[in-house]
Each structure stands twice: as structure tokens, then as C-alpha cells.
Amino acid sequence: MPFFPLRGLVTNEYAFRHPHAPDARVDWNWTVTSGSLFGRWGCGWSGVPDSLSPDPASRLRTGSAVLRVVTVRTDFENVTVRGQFHLQRPGSTARTPPTDWDGGHLLLRYQSPQELYAVSFSRRDGAVTIKRKAPPTGTGEGVYTTLAKATSPFAYGACNRVAAQAATTGSCSVVLRLWMAGRLILQAEDTAPGRLAGPGAVGVRGDNTELLFHNLAAH
């Protein structure tokens, strides 16, 4: 995957919402639908999270209490995404009160903000989960279905090796796996109608946490 700069904004929610604005920081590799993505020491970084809408350069506001970063590429099908993740213990803001799922997540076969797989490797409640998000029957943000759930420790303030995989089987079901520190932690098989058996983008999500990641690779 692309390298990050030593410092500075890569792109942000402002660029996603105003891609043709002269001050928008549009990136060829990443789209940020919420929050801000910076380079820091050659790593990807959320910046210090707040719940405000980012300004064009994310100098005054990051919006990264709700961080959603996805690749511009959408051809990741049978893929393993791995990297090293450094998270601060989840906090909260007036607009983003504490929730059980605050923490870090990998996104697989991302079709849209309403249709994706989310693999949660760090949550406020200590759980790890694999979920599918499907579009609602009416208007709304989409509906999550939990496919698998367990508990696993996560070291805040330290580097954690994480990998998540999506693979379509011969019967067109989708197998999803989560590894931490090289150990398989969680696995699920999605056989339900509407499963995401084709390619999509991959990404990183953060909720109420300062998040830094490096050596991110998808293969």
C-alpha cells in the first residue's frame, strides 16, 4: 500500500464533501468519509480526535472522533489486510458519547458506508467482533449483523500486530478471519443472502480514539 509522508495532512472529510474546491486535499490513494488522515513519521495517523467538522487543512479541527478511511481502489476481493496499530484508550466528546464499540476496526469488501464487513480488533468493552453492515430497508445508516464475537486483550499505547481476511469459498459463502500477534482469534462464515462475495475497497475505522498505523499491506 502507499507510503505516508513524515508529517502533514493526506486528505480529510472536507475533501470528500468538496472534491472540486481549490483548497481540498484530494488524494489518489485514500478517501476519508469522516475525520482526517495525516502522515506522521511515515505512518497513517488520525490526528488528535475531536467531533467537529474538519477545516480544509484540518489545522483547527480533525473530526477524527469518527474516523473512516478507505482505499480509492475497489478491486480487493480475496484479501488479507495486515498492519501494526497503536491506539490510545478510548475517550469521548459531547457529540460522541462512550459506546461499547469505541476503538479500532478494519473494513473489508467496502461497497459504501452502508454496505461492508467490519472486523473490530479493539473495543472499549474488550470484545473483538466480525460484522456485516447492510443497507437499511428505508433511509438510514445501515444495519449491522454480528457474525462472530469473542474477547481478546489489546495493549493501548503500544504497537499491536493485526490482520483481517475476507475470502469467498467455492460455494460463494464468505469466510472472514481476525489474527492478532499472529494468532487466529476469530472466524466467521457469511452464508446469508446479500453476503458480499465480490471485490470492494478496504479501510480503517476509528471511534473516539487517537489511532496510528504503519506497515499496512493488502494482498
Rounded mean pLDDT score: 96
Question: Given this structure, which CATH class is correct?
Answer: Mainly Beta
Write down the CATH topology.
Jelly Rolls
- Biggest sheet descriptor: 8 strands, antiparallel
The secondary-structure class comes to mainly beta
Q: What is the CATH architecture descriptor?
A: Sandwich
Determine the N-to-C terminus distance. Answer: 9 Å
Order of helices and strands: EHEEEEEEEEEEEEEE
Number of strands: 15
Strand content: over 45%
Q: Mind telling me the C-alpha Rg?
A: 16 Å
Q: By CATH's scheme, which homologous superfamily applies?
A: Exo-inulinase, domain 1
| pLDDT < 50 stretches | none
Give the overall form. globular
Give the tally of structural domains: 1
* Number of helical stretches of at least 4 residues: 1
Report the helical percentage.
under 10%
